[in-house]
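F.,

This is the one I mentioned.
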């Protein structure tokens, strides 16, 4: 285990280049500085300085350590500056991670209610669900929104809430004619890794529909455009198809109630739990209004 006091002495000594200058800056004796440096070298099992009457010179290992201590103490200086500039009543940051599937499957105004939270500044990023959950457990995120509930093992220690189910619609170009069994339609399907893939597969089987799979895509907005321009059929979240339906670019063939796909909120009960609860309430209210 590294002693950060030793690292501080090392950093100052490396920056100043001599024990005398380092001791003057630290307000201790040169022998104390030397003792701290020796302790760090014992802990790292590396020689960090070449010592001579001319002063201290970093070894290759010492240079590596110095690169890291520079980053460490620069971050400390920035933290002091942030705390000095930030009043105690400044808005707290709400760090929200959204999976790419949720970002693609919900309307652009889905997250807008978060920006209306009092005393809170949302910081939103999009990423892979696995990476987002890792950062949530590492306290680098306060809230994760993903399209499917993780397995029980992945939920261990996390709180879970369902914000919304994602209803789907089957859409086709307004003037497209086709057979009742869809055999003459080309379906743009999701990849098998998508939760929507299985929703679509269950629907097709239940309705005894047999379209030809003409391609796969993750982006429902792309699917809507392909339907409007190419005469294909696709099953997409209702919110994504809304504008194309209202403007008459596509028409609805069927509506599906999603059994599993939705927006799931995952979080830890920590210092930001109250703000997270308010955020979830806002999102649920917005989706039901």
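My design for it:
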């Amino acid at each position: 285990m590294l002693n950060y006091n030793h690292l501080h002495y090392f950093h100052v000594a490396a920056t100043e280049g001599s024990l005398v200058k380092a001791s003057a800056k630290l307000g201790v004796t040169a022998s104390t500085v030397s003792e701290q440096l020796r302790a760090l070298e014992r802990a790292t099992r590396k020689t960090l300085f070449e010592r001579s009457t001319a002063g201290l010179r970093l070894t290759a290992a010492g240079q590596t350590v110095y690169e890291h201590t520079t980053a460490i103490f620069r971050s400390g200086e920035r933290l002091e500056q942030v705390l000095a500039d930030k009043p105690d009543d400044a808005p707290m940051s709400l760090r929200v991670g959204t999976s790419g599937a949720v970002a693609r499957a919900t309307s652009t105004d889905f997250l807008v209610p978060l920006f209306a939270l009092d005393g809170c500044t949302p910081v939103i990023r999009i990423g892979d669900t696995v990476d987002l959950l890792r950062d949530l457990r590492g306290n680098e995120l306060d809230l994760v929104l993903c399209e499917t509930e993780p397995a029980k093992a992945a939920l261990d220690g996390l709180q879970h809430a369902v914000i919304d189910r994602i209803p789907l619609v089957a859409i086709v170009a307004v003037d497209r004619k086709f057979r009742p069994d869809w055999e003459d339609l080309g379906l743009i399907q999701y990849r098998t890794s998508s939760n929507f893939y299985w929703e679509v597969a269950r629907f097709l089987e239940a309705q005894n529909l047999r379209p030809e799979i003409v391609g796969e895509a993750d982006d429902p907005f792309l699917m809507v455009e392909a339907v409007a321009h190419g005469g294909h059929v696709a099953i997409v979240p209702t919110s994504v198809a809304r504008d194309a339906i209202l403007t008459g670019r596509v028409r609805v063939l069927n509506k599906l109630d999603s059994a599993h796909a939705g927006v799931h909120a995952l979080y830890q009960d920590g210092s930001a739990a109250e703000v997270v609860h308010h955020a979830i309430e806002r999102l649920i209210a917005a989706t039901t209004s």
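The mean pLDDT is 86.

Talk soon.
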